UniProtKB/TrEMBL annotation:
Family: Belongs to the binding-protein-dependent transport system permease family. HisMQ subfamily.
Segments passing through the bilayer: 12-35, 91-109, 155-174, 194-216
Annotated localization: Cell inner membrane; Cell membrane
Organism: Labrys wisconsinensis
Topological category with respect to the lipid bilayer: Multi-pass membrane protein
Record key words, sorted: Cell inner membrane, Cell membrane, Membrane, Transmembrane, Transmembrane helix, Transport
Protein name as annotated: Arginine/ornithine transport system permease protein
SUPFAM superfamilies: MetI-like
InterPro entries in the cross-refs: AA_ABC_transptr_permease_3TM, ABC_transp_permease_HisMQ, MetI-like, MetI-like_sf
Superkingdom of the organism of origin: Bacteria
Length: 229
């Protein structure tokens, strides 16, 4: 019976990984947009990005998760009712978890990408413009390769914290590793065993992520590439 519950917990790991991957993609997109806004010449865009990162980083992740899943649909339904509509909105736990984690870690990615972009010498962009390169070509050919290398340490930290933060989604009913472990612990009276299985799952993917990103960092390091035979 213990083995069957353990298999169920590890099977729910697929949901956790999908949640982490979806939130990561969303956070990267928000982070790139946020960094661009923070470095923009437009004062309103800079103010908007600063407000976003300050507010999101100043509120606990759990509060944002509960606000998104419970309070946001209530607010929308009240507005619909006030407008005379009978329609109601309910959020799926997976969508709410992905969106919330994406928004939260988008704020951290914004600062990571902004710092990486600032570390790239401004003269490179000015020289590219002088040669007539378009903004998209400047970003993909000059800024992005260097930004990826410079941002990798901060990106790694953000990803590891995001992966562990997926456990919060169990509190809004998502059938992930943590909720499966909780159900197994309550059914068998063996909380140590099943929470240990859940901990082992997160530790395994954390170690795998560190190894992968360390390898990627070496591949992106120009000094190591030049030294390679």
């Amino acid at each position: 019976m213990v083995a069957a519950y353990a298999a169920t917990i590890l099977g729910a790991g697929w949901v956790t990984l999908q949640l982490a991957a979806g939130a990561l993609v969303l956070s990267i997109a928000i982070g790139l947009a946020g960094a661009a806004c923070k470095l923009s010449a437009s004062a309103p865009l800079r103010l908007l990005a600063e407000l976003y990162t300050t507010v999101v980083r100043g509120i606990p992740d759990l509060v944002l998760m509960l606000l998104t899943f419970y309070s946001l649909p209530t607010l929308v339904n009240d507005l619909l009712a006030a407008a005379g509509s009978d329609a109601t909105v309910e959020l799926d736990p997976f969508i709410a978890g992905t969106a919330t984690l994406g928004v939260i870690f988008g704020a951290y990615m914004t600062e990571t990408f902004r710092g990486a972009l600032l570390a790239i010498p401004r003269g490179q962009v000015e020289a590219a413009r002088a040669y007539g390169l378009r903004p998209v070509r400047i970003f993909t050919g000059i800024l992005l390769p260097q930004m990826a290398r410079l941002a990798l340490p901060g990106f790694t930290n953000n990803w590891l914290v995001l992966l562990k933060a997926t456990a919060l989604a169990s509190l809004i009913g998502l059938q992930d590793v943590m909720l499966s472990a909780k159900a197994a612990a309550e059914a068998t009276g063996q909380p140590f065993t099943f929470y240990l299985v859940a901990g082992g799952f997160y530790l395994a993917f954390t170690l795998a992520s560190v190894l992968l990103l360390t390898w990627l960092g070496r591949r992106l390091d120009p000094t190591r590439r030049e030294a390679a035979p």
